[in-house]
Write a structure and sequence with these properties.
alpha/beta, globular, 14 helices
């Protein structure tokens, strides 16, 4: 066997061992995590069943959790703080059937989920975390940006219940849209003066957070994507490809109000991308104009005869008022 063949064989062996080791580490972590979650659930079960048998009042009064924390901490350390003991108990009460626990979620994920009192809201974030494989940091961010309420705002009661039960399932164009996009991760204070170019640059600098806000399925293609028509260059601010919907998604940024000019420009971009860039299997492209505000009447008439998949949506640079969103969703329930 010559040296080149030996080198190739060795490289293959090295890659095989690396893949096996990495896969083993992932499986080991998942097994440890699953065991830990099940253990904490069982501890909660023991506490609740002890209480339900009436032993609590007879021997320990209202100090059961405090005494457990003290005694277990002496034996096992800080993992049994009073707050953790309370969380184990809550964990069992919320997830009373252990089969409902997901091995894809860590204990840290469940801690964040248990902070949500509303059952529908908690169910949505649980399903969405699994569906989009959110880290704990990403889950926290989506909770803080009131994602559930923002998605629920444009739905009826039946659709809100489906959203809570299944998460956001993407099957049509409208499923990727939000009434308002939240860019608080850019840390631009209000009131602000920012150019469209700088806004675009900041979104690129925070691309991971931007993709999280856009949602599942978006793959970044490029910025200032050049379109040449009749020897004149035009530039699309941001271009993505959606892996689930199998189409280009074009995003144009407006620092103030979007009107009919923005609609006409985006229509041109959509026509170009469909005619010149689509390949076999691609669906017609989607255009999203993101603006601080929009002239509803202008946009209505500008889009009256267009068949393009074109949407004008708003963005905010600060987190929404969650209590107002909660009231709006409650009102939908009352009306239903």
């Amino acid at each position: 066997m010559d040296l080149s063949s030996i080198s190739t064989a060795y490289s293959s062996l090295l890659q095989t061992i690396s893949n096996t080791y990495t896969s083993g580490k992932v499986k080991a972590f998942q097994q440890v995590n699953s065991t830990l979650v099940q253990t904490y659930w069982s501890i909660g079960q023991h506490i609740v069943e002890f209480e339900q048998e009436g032993k609590l009042k007879a021997a320990y009064g209202d100090k059961l959790l405090e005494r457990l924390s003290k005694d277990l901490s002496l034996s096992y350390g800080k993992g049994f703080s009073l707050s953790n003991i309370k969380r184990f108990r809550q964990f069992y009460l919320v997830y009373a059937i252990s089969q409902t626990l997901s091995h894809q979620l860590s204990w840290s994920h469940y801690v964040e989920l248990l902070k949500i009192d509303n059952e529908l809201e908690r169910s949505f974030y649980e399903k969405q975390t699994i569906y989009e494989n959110w880290s704990v940091r990403e889950l926290v961010r989506q909770k803080e940006s009131s994602l559930f309420f923002r998605l629920a705002m444009s739905k009826d009661k039946k659709s809100i219940l489906a959203l809570a039960k299944n998460g956001q399932i993407i099957s049509k164009v409208e499923d990727i849209l939000k009434d308002v996009y939240i860019f608080e991760f850019l840390k631009i204070p209000e009131p602000y003066q920012i150019s469209e170019t700088l806004l675009e640059q900041k979104l690129i600098n925070h691309l991971q957070d931007f993709l999280l806000e856009l949602g599942k399925g978006f793959a970044f293609i490029g910025r200032q994507y050049r379109v040449t028509l009749a020897n004149t260059h035009h530039y699309i601010d941001l271009v993505f490809y959606h892996r689930i919907l199998k189409c280009f998604v074009l995003i144009d940024l407006k620092k103030d109000t979007a009107g009919y000019e923005a609609v006409g420009q985006m229509n041109m971009y959509l026509g170009y991308m469909e005619a010149e860039q689509n390949v076999e299997g691609d669906n017609p492209p989607i255009g999203i104009i993101l603006a601080r505000d929009k002239d509803e009447l202008q946009i209505k008439y500008a889009m009256s005869h267009t068949t393009s998949k074109l949407f004008v949506q708003k963005y905010q640079l600060y987190l929404p008022n969650e209590e107002e969103l909660r009231r709006e969703i409650a009102l939908i329930y009352q009306q239903e």
